[in-house]
């Protein structure tokens, strides 16, 4: 019985702790990113952030842009990436494959995508939504830390 309790406790610890190692940007880079400056006319700015949810139990989910991995998300982190204007596709891991959002971006503008966890049948899934700019800025400023995309690590 003791072994069973120990096994259950160990399984719970690993399921809650998460296994990713995100590269958090410097404080200076985070502060600069949180000015939300408009990108140049030949680039669109995309902020992808994740809020905390009680039932997510430390879930990390991969985010991609146009088939390339941006990185993993977890609560209270955000990415600030730039991309050429045009149609951009952002898929994320979900319970039975990927959920995605498509955005037709314009140069010189910022876009804000919220990544959130939703309850699934067997496991939590993730989804994305284009969100209100002012609410996103407020949440990011107060709660999130900038994470470097995989290609910048």
Main features:
single chain; 153 residues; alpha/beta; five-stranded mixed beta sheet; 3 helices
Low-confidence stretches: 2-19
Rg measurement, Å:
17 Å
Query: N- to C-terminal separation?
Result: 45 Å
How do the SSEs run, as a string of H and E?
HHEEEEEEEEHE
Total number of helices? 3
Strand order of the largest sheet: 8-7-1-4-9
What's the shape?
A: globular
Sheet-strand content, in percent, reads: 35-45%
What class, by secondary structure content? alpha/beta
Level of helix content?
10-25%
Main sheet overview? 5 strands, mixed
**How many domains comprise the coordinates?**
1
Could you give the count of β-strands? Answer: 9
Mean pLDDT across the residues is: 83
Short structural summary:
Helices cover 22% and strands 39% of the residues. The protein is α/β, with parallel strands linked by helices.
What do these coordinates show?
The chain is α/β, with parallel strands linked by helices and 153 residues long. It has one domain (21-152). Helix content is 22%, strand content 39%. It contains 3 helices and 9 strands; from the N terminus they run ααββββββββαβ. The strands form 3 sheets. The protein has a 5-stranded mixed beta sheet with strand order 8-7-1-4-9, with helices on one face. The protein has a two-stranded antiparallel ribbon with strand order 2-3. A hairpin with a 2-residue loop joins strand 2 (61-65) and strand 3. The model is unreliable at 2-19 (pLDDT under 50).
